[in-house]
Amino acid sequence: MLSAENIIVDASEIHGILCGMLAGGMNLDDQNWIEALADVVNQGDKFSPTAEQNIVLMFNQICQEFIEADFALRMCLPEDSSSINVRGKALVNWVHGFLLGFGLHQDDLTKCSEEAKEALEDFAQISKLDEAMDETEESEQAFFEVVEYVRISAMLCFNEMGKSLIDSRQQSPVIH
Hints:
Radius of gyration: 16 Å
CATH superfamily: YgfB uncharacterised protein family PF03695
Distance between the termini: 39 Å
Strand content: under 5%
CATH architecture: Up-down Bundle
Number of helices: 7
Structural class: mainly alpha
CATH class: Mainly Alpha
Oligomer: single chain
Shape: globular
């Protein structure tokens, strides 16, 4: 979808950036996020209407998943039928994007719990992985565990530093 729109990053990375922006404390009703995302992933050029529509749908889904009580976040990664190396690269891209998006909205890590700080440090290590993995049951299990850890850690960060819709509305200026 995105490569056809001349966007140089993949959907996993965009999903990670959006999750990181929200987990880092971006207001849920901030209307400037699409321009900030275009600056980061599209060299400042506006997205095409089709790409923007798809990205807005992704953003809305992430917002909904973050605020649901049942750990509903679904990471945008390739299907399980894809090779483990394709999925591994997408996970690295997602984590890289998360760190980037998080950094855009959170520069005071003293507000983070020790668990969140540790997760962010682990994310930094995961984002550097580039070794090929064997297509074995052990690799599949390890990959599944890392994906779950990343997913739960992203939700932990959002629960600590992200803003609910109520918080967002209280901080947004009211225009009459």
